[in-house]
Specification:
Structural class: mainly alpha
Helix content: over 70%
Order of helices and strands: HHHHHHHHHHHHEEHHHHEHHH
Shape: globular
Oligomer: single chain
Radius of gyration: 27 Å
Number of helices: 19
Strand content: 5-15%
Amino acid sequence: MDNFIIAFFNIWNVKKLRKKIGITLGLLLVYRFGAYVPIPGINPLGISDFIEKFHSGSKGLMQILSSFTGGAFNRASVFALGIMPYISASIIIQLMCIIIPYLQKLQRDGESGRKQISFITRWITVGICFIQAPVYLISFTQQFIPFSSSTTTYLIDLNTFYGKSMFWVIGIMILTSGTLFTMWLGDKITDKGIGNGISLIIMSGIIARFPDAISKEVFRKLEIGNGGLIVLFFEFLLWLLVILFSVIIIQAIRKIPVQYVSHYKSLGLDIDSQLIHKKRHQYIPLKMTSAGVMPIIFSQAIMLFPLTFSDHVKNINIKNFFHLFQDIYGLWYNLTIFILVIIFTFFYTAIAIPVNQMADDLKRNGGHIPRIKPGKETAEYIDHILSIITLPGAVLLAIIAILPSIVFRIGGVTQNFALFYGGTSLLIVVGVILDISQQVNVYLLNYHYDGLMMMKYRSTNKYTK
């Protein structure tokens, strides 16, 4: 507790860091406020009643998408699509960079190339929004028809409001604008605040559901016949162990030793004949999970895409096949996710870690791995080590991906709280918190270093005078 208080005061004393944290919290507050603003034509009171009655125990598509948007997806908010279209566009552009030579060239062009790729990604995001927004509006409004009654009006009377056709036009434009505004908030957090803006926005949506999930779990366990405080204690203990396990997996690295040869000219001697060679020992850190949370996002995107259109399929056999994967706590869904996560971990690691470029950079800078020849052999050695450490990382990542379903089926945990036992939600929260803590530590180290240098400068001037 004392360390926490000391750390808090250290952060508060750094004016620049304090300002960045304030900007970050302010922009996140704007996003959370927008998650409660409904699309024009939607009755917010009716939406709340609808969710309470018919989706309190929802499974499948709605529950996962709602967890990423902090409930905005369920509420028909202006931020209902959230940042997911941008993530889908980023996945598409990364796959296109493998196939299209022009995009490969942009990747090698440095900062200017990254800006052009970012520009293309944003236009792809707009295109995805124009596809997802009408599908979302159709699916959402059709759900009201079976449940509407004379006492509850979920939709405002569109004919007297501004017409049915205008509802679709305005709804699509607002949902698209909401996604673009969310992207803008993420960029501002990255530039002016602290941490990665997109990741922080996703994390804020996930954490927003945590108080409700934990309160329901506590009240459920305190009911007679559900185990009481003892079972609740072991549930939280298991949850903390899962968090610790996730931190270890995210931070686990394999160090490959590297030697650099530096040349120093000796003073007062002939430059051509007298050189001192000094070896500097460093290492290349290879993460066990270099792909991070992306394999789980890839896998869930593939699983959720056909489910989005399953209600519009007329073939009964195809519809029944899709419904096998409707339950995110079911056997077939989790078995498929487990396999896909392992496959995509290897696939994304191959994209994210350019072993040939790493070998070329080492050779160009005068570095080499001991007992390994520079060039092709170095690339093959790094690729071999990467393959060895990626296999256990992929399996552990797949276990975390299906852990919420295991806990829900075996442990009797509520659905909402089970989502925090693993999967994308837990990995994103843990990864973002670790990233923020590292950035805060860097700011604090720079602040104390500058302070020490200033004290040294003043003391030197004092003795000089």
